[in-house]
Write a structure and sequence with these properties.
The protein has five helices and 17 strands. The protein is α+β, with helices and mostly antiparallel strands. Helix 1 runs parallel beside helix 3 and helix 2 packs across helix 3. The N and C termini lie far apart (52 Å).
């Protein structure tokens, strides 16, 4: 005779913390002070959907006993002004265990690691001092590597990195300059004391806790990135850039120059920046929700490999809603206001003010007279479609390769 059905927690009680968090997040989105248009609001609800998707994925990959890398940010799970040129992975860790990370370095421009202590919250950015790129690793001729992370050791040897107290996350970034030529490598993580064993299967109590954690993560995610632009962008004069500086809370070898724009339909911002000797130099627009714009089907970003470079060594880009007919047009996709972001990565020396960008706002009709090489910059409709097709194909291959 079959056992009687076990006592079951009412489903509403299991999922309620998460559904309550979704309702609270919806209120935050709907009341955002920067909403001006229906498009802004629609983007907010799209952002909410992508955040829910990301949090469910992350909360169900939360087992610290048997960690694995999960794509933490992507085209459908955007957050934190995600870089269109980057694939992001993360794994949950604890500071008193040892981990083995095995992989093959691909042909990407940069492969970077960062150990994060704590979580991003509405009040602060977690410390990320343990950040380095693959130049600090011993990599075999075939591109393979084995890296160990764990408690401090006196005789750790090469490719061993100590985990700081309070560490919660190991983050990995692969950065692409040429979407159509560079290929990603492979990577996996194992916890030394649990590899070869199985995690405990979640019961109702564990799932109830997981839904509660997911609700907290969702509200933290929404609150944090509402505040981030206020911390680092919105107090700056509009339509200007900061001098290049080390990225707050970011990678050890990443410099950034940031700003925010506010342009009418008949205005354009002309940005001039020297092509850098840094292996990676990229520019992008972001929305007021602090996420990237559609970078697959629109040219809302350019890096130094994709951009047209003028004969004087400068890259000149035109940010506008309407098409100015130049190859380096950066599309606002109809957004009157948004975020401006430059990044330089894998740097050997600080990026100086003279290497940073300058901006000038002009009437759209006057753009040609402000581009000294305008004759070389022009592009027709067929050429533009070719550029967008190259982005679409490069993105598809990068994600599937």
């Amino acid at each position: 005779m079959a056992d009687a059905n076990p006592a079951v927690v009412p489903p509403s009680e299991i999922t309620k913390p998460f559904t309550d968090a979704i309702a609270e997040a919806e209120k935050l989105v709907a009341s955002a002070e920067f909403i001006r248009t229906e498009q802004d609001l629609a983007e907010g609800y799209e952002y909410l959907a992508s955040s829910i998707r990301a949090i469910v994925q992350l909360a169900w990959a939360y087992d610290k006993g048997h960690p694995f890398f999960v794509s933490s940010t992507g085209p459908y799970t955007k957050m934190g002004l995600d870089n269109p040129d980057t694939l992001y992975y993360s794994a949950n860790i604890v500071d008193d265990a040892e981990y083995v990370v095995t992989g093959t370095r691909g042909t990407t421009t940069d492969l970077a690691f960062q150990i994060i202590a704590g979580q991003y919250t509405a009040d602060e950015v977690p410390p990320g001092d343990q950040a380095f790129d693959d130049r600090q690793l011993q990599i075999e001729d075939d591109g393979s590597f084995v890296v160990r992370f764990g408690p401090p050791k006196d005789d750790a040897g090469p490719n061993y990195f100590a985990i700081a107290p309070g560490a919660t996350t190991l983050s990995v970034r692969e950065v692409y300059s040429d979407w159509n030529a560079e290929r990603k490598g492979s990577i996996r993580i194992e916890r030394v004391d649990t590899v070869g064993t199985a995690p405990v299967e979640a019961d109702v109590a564990a799932l109830t806790k997981r839904y509660k954690v997911a609700g907290k993560m969702l509200l933290s995610r929404i609150n944090t990135w509402f505040n981030f632009p206020k911390w680092f962008y919105l107090d700056l004069p509009v339509n200007t850039f900061t001098e290049p500086r080390l990225t707050p809370g970011g990678l050890a070898t990443q410099f950034s120059s940031v700003g925010h724009y506010d342009l009418t339909d008949d205005e354009a911002m002309i940005i001039t920046v020297p092509k850098s000797a840094a292996p990676y130099q990229g520019f992008q627009l972001g929305s007021m929700w602090y996420i990237s714009l559609d970078y697959v089907n629109h040219q809302t970003s350019l890096n130094s490999s994709q951009a047209q470079v003028d004969p004087d060594g400068n890259i000149r880009m035109v940010v506008s809603r309407k098409n100015p007919g130049v190859a380096n047009w950066i599309e606002t996709t109809g957004r009157q206001q948004g975020i401006l972001q430059f990044r330089w990565q894998r740097t050997d020396a600080p990026i100086t003010a003279s290497e940073g960008p300058t901006a000038q706002v002009v009437e759209l009709s006057d753009v040609p007279q402000h581009l000294p090489y305008f004759a070389n910059n022009q592009i027709d409709d067929a050429g533009w479609r070719d550029r967008i097709a190259a982005r679409q194909r490069g993105f598809s291959e990068r994600m599937l390769g």
